[in-house]
Design brief:
heterodimer, A: about 400 residues, alpha+beta, two-stranded antiparallel sheet, 8 strands, B: mainly alpha, MetI-like fold, about 70% helix, about 0% strand, flat
């Protein structure tokens, strides 16, 4: 019967069938998407040819020709290549992301717990802080802190001295003593690593003993003792091979020590307390989500209050806190690209900013920068997924 | 029975009908339980009071009592204070308010901006307010509003055309934010449905798009819009920077909305999907009538958070040289008359964003409460 009718009938039959309709829709989408990509690729080729550019990554090995004021890890001069400027930028991005995540976590947990305080004044103050901070764009926070650091802090001549002339705060940066490692410092490092290994081994052993016999060792204090005593012994035995280079005012600027640039301070503080406001809400929600019955049950079993917190509340709250915490870390890392607004040289400012302008390689530089951010995002989220699966509730 | 007739004697202060001791009720009781219940709490309270005492009186003086509200330039401001910088120079903000509001929009055409602001208020009011007569027409008006606003602002069809580069200040901030918000919702829902589709090709395309956008910072996308996007277009053609930026902001917000809506779709009990199938509803019918209303209801907090996020992100356009409220304000800081008034500027802009974002989050909370039906699946 179908064969006697027109082919349009076959088409409508195909359309009515769920399976074949799916296939048809997918084929059409694929044609549209690939057609679009092909048109874009063709336009790119024609347009690049029209302005006389070619698509290649050779520019990475041309001399960059610009200075980067902040390169704490590797030597960089304006004769270095664009590739090196990209590496410096990437390291600066990772540096700010790392320290930012640490400070944001600490502040976020403190503020989140303050929010839950039974003290009315404390919880109000932290509530107002959280609401104000997270409802204002992070860029404004960063610019405001930068303005404070640059305009309100004194010049190097009148730098504020902290901790008995060891630390100096001025509008050119925060000067701190820098460690100098002499021969023999390596041994101290090795001893430190060994004591960390000992602590891990001791923890495992103590846990096994506790699981088997119920005896509880003061793990924290013993670990602390191992970590402090062994390296200090090594330090004395090797004749203190580590000394400190203390900053001192010579002429118009400080000599010696380590300088933390105002750009870094502004970006670090701004990103940290902005993210901390979000983390505080996550922490608060996580702790509230653990029902009171859990605490009561633990107390009924005779578990002491601080061990209740350690064994009952925190593990359950952490399970709720970790996934959103992960996305806050990702946000902080991506927001660190705002560095460009205050002149901190991260990957967006070096490769995506100055290198782009100097070489005119928009496509290549942007592809590299976006690719790097994608890889960082993937790495952070896969690490947090792994961590999450470790602390996840094992359902039976 | 007999006991109640028997006059019983109580020790003083132990009668059951006596009011509770004054120390546990009223203001004193409240202070005792909330501020001084334990040594730790007492210490915390004292530290907080000391901290606030350090900050509040001097801030209040700087912000209000010591501030100057009208002056021609900063020199005049300083002259009117006890000491220069003793108070805020709000004259700077007052003098620049018109610039901050309209940007460089041509003077004689500013009535169009005013009408747009008024219609914007009406659209927001009509779309958000429950129980107003003709709710359907208000919603239709809110849906038409972006196009109406585009016509009013940029001209054409009988109105004097205005170049997009004339836009600035709060006007530009609102244009970027409102476009991002209103177009990202439908696009985000479509992407979320695509990501949960049973067709592998559709799903893969949506996943790649969402994960790519969410993996890179908005700044890089804005750089793409300002430097690279013209290479993608047919040779010789190009379109306005503002429109390129608007497209990027919309795509960025849509990817985040898509994930929020996907969370809502997953949070729905599978019985709802099965019931819709059992009733013989088609894909679109079941989504329109059963799935989406419930999924969107669950996703409201996340959607509003994304809106607030994209509203705050709109300040990033200053990095590619567009003069939104922040960019214009910073440019104004270089004015010799008002040099170095950064604190006033940043306080004003922070307040502007705080008021609007806080209002949004409060509205979302009240909406959540109203839509709460008691049983969450």
């Amino acid at each position: 019967m179908a064969s006697s009718n027109a082919p349009s009938n076959v088409l409508s039959l195909l359309w009515r069938n769920k399976e074949s309709r799916g296939v048809i829709i997918q084929i059409i989408t694929m044609v549209i998407v690939f057609g679009l990509l092909a048109v874009i690729a063709r336009n790119v080729v024609i347009n690049l040819e029209a302005v006389g550019k070619e698509f290649s990554f050779d520019f990475l090995f041309w001399p960059a020709g610009y200075d980067i004021g902040f390169s704490p890890f590797i030597e960089y001069t304006n004769k270095s290549t664009h590739f090196m400027s990209g590496v410096v930028g990437l390291l600066n991005t990772l540096l700010i992301a790392f320290w930012g995540c640490i400070l944001a976590t600490i502040l976020g947990f403190i503020i989140g717990i303050m929010r839950l305080s039974s003290n009315w004044l404390v919880s109000r103050v932290s509530y107002i802080f959280v609401e104000f901070v997270r409802n204002v764009p992070v860029l404004i926070h960063i610019l405001a802190i930068y303005a404070i650091v640059v305009t309100i802090l004194p010049s190097t001549k009148q730098a504020i001295s902290l901790g008995g002339d060891l630390f100096f705060l001025s509008n050119r940066g925060f000067y701190i003593p820098a460690p100098i490692f002499e021969s023999g410092a390596g041994w101290v490092g090795i001893v430190l690593l060994i004591s960390i290994g000992l602590v891990i081994a001791f923890k495992r052993w103590a846990k096994r003993i506790q699981d088997n016999t119920g005896t509880i060792y003061p793990v924290f204090w013993i670990s602390l003792a191992i970590l402090t005593v062994l390296p200090s012994l090594a330090l004395v035995a090797m004749g203190t091979p580590i000394s400190w280079d203390i900053p001192a005012l010579k002429g118009f600027n400080f000599q010696g020590g380590m300088a933390v640039k105002p750009e870094f301070i502004a970006l670090w503080l701004g990103l940290s307390y902005y993210t901390a406001a979000f983390i505080a809400e996550i922490v608060r929600a996580g702790i509230l989500a653990v029902s009171d019955g859990q605490t009561e049950a633990a107390h009924a079993l005779g578990v002491r209050p601080n061990r209740t917190l350690q064994l009952i509340i925190v593990p359950q709250a952490l399970r709720i806190i970790v996934p959103p915490l992960c996305s806050q870390y990702l946000n902080l890392t991506k927001n660190s690209s705002l560095a460009i607004a205050i002149g901190y040289m991260d990957i967006t400012a070096t490769l995506g900013g100055i290198s782009l302008m100097q070489t005119g390689k928009e496509m290549e530089t942007m592809l590299i920068v976006m690719g790097i951010y994608l890889i960082i995002s993937l790495l952070i989220s896969s690490f947090m997924n792994w961590f999450n699966s470790r602390i996840k509730l094992t359902e039976r | 029975m007999t006991k109640s007739f028997n006059p019983q004697s109580y020790e003083p202060g132990t009668h059951p009908d006596l009011p509770p001791p004054a120390i546990t009720t009223g203001l004193i009781g409240w202070i005792k339980t909330n501020l001084f219940s334990s040594p730790l709490n007492t210490a915390l309270t004292l530290i907080s009071i000391w901290f606030l005492w350090q900050i509040l009186p001097s801030s209040f003086h700087w912000l209000f009592t010591g501030a100057v509200w009208s002056a021609v330039d900063r020199k005049e401001c300083w002259a009117m204070m006890d000491a220069p910088r003793d108070g805020a120079c709000w004259a700077f903000i007052r003098g620049s308010l018109e610039l901050f509001l309209y940007g460089w929009y041509p003077e004689p055409e500013r009535w169009r901006v005013n009408i747009t602001f008024f219609l914007f208020g009406a659209a927001v009011f009509g779309a958000l307010r429950e129980n107003i007569p003709g709710k359907k027409y208000w919603l239709m008006f809110a849906a038409v509003f972006p196009f109406l606003a585009a016509w009013l602002l940029f001209g054409g069809f009988g109105l004097e055309p205005v170049a997009t580069s004339k836009l600035g200040g709060i006007l530009l901030t609102l244009v970027v934010a409102v476009t991002g918000i209103s177009f990202s919702l439908p696009l985000g829902i479509a992407l979320a449905l695509g990501r949960r589709s049973r067709l592998p090709v559709l799903r893969a395309i949506c996943v790649i798009f969402i994960e790519f956008i969410r993996g890179v910072p908005l700044i890089t996308l804005l750089f793409v819009a300002s430097t690279m996007l013209t290479y993608f277009l047919p040779p010789g053609s190009s379109f306005d920077l503002l429109i390129r930026v608007l497209i990027m902001v919309t795509l960025f917000a849509a990817a985040y909305i898509a994930e929020v809506v996907r969370g809502g779709l997953q949070g729905l009990a599978s019985g709802q999907y099965e019931a819709a199938d059992a009733l013989g509803l088609t894909y679109w019918q079941s989504h329109r009538l059963i799935i989406l209303p419930q999924a969107l209801k669950i996703s409201i907090p996340g959607i509003v958070n994304t809106f607030i996020g994209s509203y705050k992100d709109s300040v990033l356009v200053l990095i590619i040289g567009m003069m939104d409220i922040l960019g214009l304000g910073r440019a104004r800081l270089n004015d010799p008359d008002w040099l170095g008034l950064a604190p006033e500027l940043y306080i004003f802009i922070s307040l502007f964003f705080f008021v609007s974002c806080f209002a949004m989050s409060r509205y979302s909370l009240s909406l959540e409460k109203k839509l709460e039906t008691g049983h969450q699946s």
